[in-house]
């Protein structure tokens, strides 16, 4: 089978399509003929050599978390899925018996990690992580859901928002950002989205943002956001100076949910404002398999249409990462291998 492997951790030019042996499922596993795998900034961190999870000794490395396709074969002891089933992978990997797994939510697992291997024609996965796809949900659409929408969904749960509340989403045009805007709309939560690009913001408004603010310098955004209102919560996937911006504009008692650091790995916060304002900063990573099942239901019922910017054939996976790196995207980028 062919795989779009990272052969060097030097950015998008480090992706090469290579031949590998087709995996066979072991006990509790299934192989999936991948129809679509969306890419995330997470994969780009790895490709840029900026992730502690992968180093040059791991090369060639096949990334790709968000796998949708058709079960090819199942290993011993697998009863819940059969060859031919259309499925979506929940990329969570958990131990199943630490205190956090027992008490839940499962994404708190002490040895939590993520599946990698979807940027290939066939992926070998834990069968219990496969979610059946209803007929009305195609593989490309499904592949958009796991990392970006799952993360945003879980963050919104943790933000404890009520209908009519106001949510601030700095960087509302990428995977997590668009997902947060669309899911806020599903919840009846008003939202403010930002982007460096005015033209992208027209689409963000059409996707459900109630307010949009153009700009990329947190200082410039501060006044414009404050003039709209004091957000009840902030979805922060940018980190850096955007943390201070979000904390500053947020209302008393507001919640900032943090999942990323695209704009910087450290942030300064005003401690007095934090405690005097009864504000909360909450870290969050991915979500639960049940969250993902809920998202599949929302797509099946027509309540959510994940925004897919472009699809790329497996051969052009490097180009997909270049597009992400250049911020030339609005929504998800999906690599397809043809169903
Ligand atoms: N912890 C978790 O479970 C988890 C899960 C998913 C993602 N993440 C993290 O969350 C972040 C977003 O992931 P993603 O896949 O959604 O990424 P993405 O699609 O590449 O996000 C692009 C968005 O980020 C904005 N952006 C990019 N660089 C920026 C900068 N230097 N300053 C300001 N805005 C910038 C873009 O704004 P423009 O419109 O202005 O270009 C766009 O809105 C990543 O850091 C990722 O690692 C974490
Ligand atoms: Zn565990």
UniProtKB/TrEMBL annotation:
GO biological process: small molecule metabolic process
SMART domains tied to this protein: PKS_ER
Transmembrane segment boundaries: none
Keywords carried by this UniProt record: NADP
GO molecular function: adenyl nucleotide binding; anion binding; oxidoreductase activity, acting on the CH-OH group of donors, NAD or NADP as acceptor
The keyword Cell membrane appears for this protein: no
Protein name in the entry: Alcohol dehydrogenase catalytic domain-containing protein
């Amino acid at each position: 089978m062919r795989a779009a492997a990272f052969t060097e951790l030097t950015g998008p030019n480090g992706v090469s399509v290579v031949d590998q042996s087709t995996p066979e499922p072991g006990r509790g596993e299934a192989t999936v003929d991948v129809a679509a795998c969306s890419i995330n900034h997470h994969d780009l961190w790895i490709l840029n050599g900026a992730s502690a999870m992968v180093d040059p000794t791991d090369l060639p490395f096949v990334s790709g978390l968000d796998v949708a396709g058709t079960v090819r074969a199942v290993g011993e002891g697998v009863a819940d899925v059969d060859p031919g089933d259309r499925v979506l992978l929940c990329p969570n990997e958990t131990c199943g018996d630490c205190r956090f797994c027992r008490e839940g939510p499962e994404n708190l697992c002490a040895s939590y990690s993520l599946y990698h291997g979807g940027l290939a024609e066939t992926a070998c996965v834990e069968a219990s992580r496969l979610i059946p796809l209803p007929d009305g949900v195609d593989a490309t659409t499904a592949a958009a859901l796991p990392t970006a929408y799952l993360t945003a969904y879980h963050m919104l749960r943790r933000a404890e928002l009520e209908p009519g509340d106001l949510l601030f989403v700095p960087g509302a045009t990428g995977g997590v950002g668009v997902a947060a805007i669309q899911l806020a709309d599903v919840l009846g939560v008003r939202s403010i989205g930002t982007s460096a690009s005015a033209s992208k913001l027209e689409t963000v408004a059409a996707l459900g943002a109630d307010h949009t603010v153009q700009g990329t310098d947190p200082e410039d955004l501060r006044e414009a956001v404050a003039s709209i209102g004091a957000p009840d919560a902030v979805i922060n996937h940018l980190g850096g100076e955007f943390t201070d911006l979000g904390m500053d504009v947020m209302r008393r008692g507001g919640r900032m949910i943090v999942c990323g650091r695209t704009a910087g790995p450290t942030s300064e916060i005003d401690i007095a404002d934090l405690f005097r304002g009864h504000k909360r900063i909450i870290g969050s990573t991915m979500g639960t398999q049940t969250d993902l099942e809920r998202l599949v239901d929302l797509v099946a019922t027509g309540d959510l249409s994940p925004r897919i910017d472009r699809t790329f054939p497996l051969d052009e996976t490097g180009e997909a990462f270049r597009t992400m790196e250049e911020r030339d995207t609005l929504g998800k980028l999906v690599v397809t291998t043809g169903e």
